[in-house]
Design a protein that fits this description.
Blueprint lengths: L4 E6 L2 E6 L10 H16 L5 E6 L10 H5 L23 E5 L2 E3 L1 H8 L2 E4 L4 E3 L13 H9 L1 H10 L3 E2 H6 L5 E2 L5 H13 L3 H13 L5 H28 L12
Parallel strand pairs: 2-3, 3-4, 4-6, 5-7, 6-9
Antiparallel strand pairs: 1-2, 7-8
Helix pairs in contact: 3-4, 4-5, 8-9
């Protein structure tokens, strides 16, 4: 693992930190491969339930390292390559903790995550529009699915900056928290999600992703198929807990 990517584990929560603060956490090829390795390791770890992805030093990720690209070293497509870090959606949730710039390929990194938590310093944008660098990180696919085709095209064609409040308003960001607390809040949320019965949580998540590629009838059929294991292994136990008094009057804490 490269020192450009740091990994910390706290029980079921894995935090992955892009660690190139002097470059606003732009990913050179070494860092991009390191991020891919970290995500693969999280995916393969049976004890890891939820990941938090963030950047060091007050920035999230400024995309590909254009200095490396300008020096003649081409970057590999982060989504289109078989070994790209953003190739395929993982089987477990990833939460982005975004402060500062999440632009160009860094926007793609944020979109790869299921939930994006921001503070008022967060800025999203396809800033690479100015330099003739195309998206190869899944942005053109994932952005319309999250914010809608019209808003996505506005961002893709103009390369304009989208601040935290607008990002929340259009659904690009999930929630806004106090300045400097995105990582802590993301880790808190990750621990909460990790505490849920995992089979139903991950099957519902998978159904939501797969529904984009199916018509409604087939998507509902697939939802039913994905629900079967949780119904067999989790539902009866959970219903028994509810019947015994858990979850009444808005209280969901275990007794």
């Amino acid at each position: 693992m490269t020192d450009r990517i740091l990994v910390e584990r706290n029980g079921p929560v894995t935090t992955i930190v892009i660690n190139r603060p002097k470059s606003k956490n732009a990913l050179d090829n070494e860092a991009a491969h390191g991020l891919a390795d970290a995500l693969k390791a999280f995916e393969a770890d049976a004890d890891a339930r939820v990941a938090v992805l963030t950047g060091a030093g007050g920035a999230f990720c400024a995309g590909a390292d254009l200095k490396e690209l300008g020096g003649g070293t081409d970057y590999f497509p982060w989504a289109g390559s078989a070994d790209g870090p953003l190739r395929s959606t993982l089987s477990k949730p990833v939460i982005a903790a975004v402060e500062g710039h999440a632009c160009a390929g860094g926007l793609g990194v944020a979109l790869f995550c299921d939930i994006r938590i921001v503070d008022d310093t967060a800025v999203f944008g396809v800033f690479s529009r100015r330099w003739g660098v195309p998206m190869s990180d899944g942005t053109t696919v994932r952005l319309p699915r999250i914010v809608g085709q019209g808003r996505a095209l506005d961002m893709l064609l103009t390369g304009r900056a989208v601040g935290a409040d607008e990002a929340v308003a259009i659904g690009l960001a999930t929630r806004k928290v106090a300045r400097g607390t995105t990582r802590a809040e993301a880790e808190k949320l990750a621990a909460e999600i990790a505490g849920f019965p995992p089979i139903a949580m991950t099957s519902d998540r998978q159904s939501a992703y797969e529904s984009f590629d199916r018509d409604q009838a087939h998507a509902i059929q697939r939802e039913m198929e994905l629900s079967l294991e949780a119904r067999r292994r989790e539902s009866q136990t959970g219903a028994a807990r509810f019947a015994s008094g858990e979850g009444r009057h808005g209280s969901f804490e275990r007794k």
